[in-house]
Amino acid sequence: MEDDTMNEIERLLALTEKAVSPFHTAEAVKETLEEKGFAPLCWKEEWNLQKGGKYYIIHHGTTIFAFTIGEDFEGESIRMAAAHGDFPGFRLKPSPEMKAEAYLKLNTEPYGGVNLASWMDRPLSIAGRVAVKSEDVFHPDLYLVDFEKPVLTIPNIAIHLDRDMNKGRELNRQTQMLPLAGMAGQETTDGYMKKLLADKLHVMPEDILEYELNIYNADTGTCVGFDGEFVSAPRLDDLTSVQAIIDGITKGVRREGLNVSVVFDHEEIGSRTKQGAGSTLLMLVLERIYEGLSIQRTKLLQGLSEGMLLSVDVAHGLHPNYQEKADPTNHPVLNGGFCIKESSSQSYATDCEAVGIVQSICDREGIPYQKFANRSDGTGGGTLGAIASAMIPVKTVDIGVPLLAMHSSRELMGRKDMEALSAFSAAFFTMDQRG
C-alpha cells in the first residue's frame, strides 16, 4: 500500500500488485500501518496500552487488526470495520507435480467460488507461506514467498477440437483446470516444487516441511473506458474494502472512542476458522484491549450496546448485458456510489438503525451511496457481517463497492465508488457521536 501522495485508484492498483495471497495482504497492510505510526503487538506478551495510541497485531499470518484509542476513551464508544484479504482461486496440493507426456502440470484445488473459465489463458504466478525446519519442532521457520512473475498458465482447448464450446460446457476442476508449469524432464519428478521453493528461500529442499501456496492472476490492473472511468484488475474482491477500512483507521483518532479495523482470512470459504470472522477472535482482541487499558470487562459489555460494525465487501453491480439478473428496484450501477446491501435472510446484515446511521453520515458528508438487494427468485453471496455480528452482538451493516464479473480472475469497478467508500470509512471513524 502506498502513501497519501497517490490517489485512491493508484493506491488500490498498487495494493493489487502486492496482495497476491492472504499472507501478502496482511504484510501490505502492516507496511501502511507502520508508515502511519501504528505500533506492533504480540499476542503472547502483555499489552500495556496507552490512550491516544495506535496499534496493530497479526494473527496466524493472514488476519490483521488495527486499532486506535482516544485520549478520553472510557470504554463506551466502539466502532469497527471488517473486510477480508483472501480471494477465489486455486491452491497447490502437496506433491503437486504431474507429468502428461512431455509436459509438467501442477495438481491444484479450487479455493472459494471460482469462475473457472475466467482463469483460462492467463499469466499466473504462485505466492504464499512456507514452513521450514528449525531447532524448535513446535516453531518451524515461516517464510513468505512470491514468484513475482508469470510461471503458470491454464491453456484452453482450440475451438477446432471442441466445436460446441460456445454452446456452454462444464469444466472439470481436477482434469481441465490444472496449470501448465513447463516441460517435464528427469529433474521435474517428485519434489520439484520443493526444489524451486528451496532455491528462492536459500534453504535445503529436505528442510521444507509444508506450504500454503495459492495461484494468482499476474495481470496488471488498469483503468479502462473512454474517460478511464472503470478499474479492471484482479482481486478487487475484497482489496477495495481492505484499502477503504485502512484509509479510514489511519485518518485520525476519536477522542472518546475506540476504532478497530480488521482484515479477516477465509471469508471465501465460510469464515469459520481460527482466523476467520466466525471465530471468537474479534471478541478476544476487544477483551485484550480493555485489559491493556485496565478497563473492566463490564465496560466492554456495556460499550457493545452502543457499538457498531461495518462489514465491508463488494456488491453486484447492474450488468448491462444481463439486466434481467438484477432486482427491479435495487440495482446499483458502477460509479453511482458505494452500496448498502440488505437481505431479509441476513445473508447481508440488515439492521434499519445501522443503515440509517450510514445514510445519515453520507447525507451529512455528501457521499454518494446506493441500495442493493438480490432478486427474490434468485440467490446472491453472503459476507462476514452476519457471522461476525453473531459473535459480537452489535449494530451491523453490509456495505461495499459494486462490481461486474465478481469472482472472475479479473473484475471491474467504477473509480468513483472507491473514492466514495474511502470517504465514508474516514467519516465513520472520525465523526463524533453528534456528527
From TrEMBL:
On whether Zinc is a keyword of this UniProt record, the answer is yes
Tell me which UniProt keywords the record has, alphabetically. Aminopeptidase, Hydrolase, Metal-binding, Metalloprotease, Protease, Zinc
Provide an example Pfam family for this protein. Peptidase_M18
Under InterPro entries, the record lists: Peptidase_M18, Peptidase_M18_dom2
Q: Name one GO molecular function term.
A: aminopeptidase activity
* Gene3D superfamilies noted in UniProt: Aminopeptidase i, Domain 2 (2.30.250.10), Zn peptidases (3.40.630.10)
- Domain of life, per lineage: Bacteria
Needed cofactors:
Zn(2+)
**Enzyme Commission identifier(s):** 3.4.11.-
The family assignment reads: Belongs to the peptidase M18 family.
The name under which this protein is listed is M18 family aminopeptidase
Q: Which organism is it from?
A: Sellimonas caecigallum
Q: What is the lineage of its organism?
A: Bacteria, Bacillati, Bacillota, Clostridia, Lachnospirales
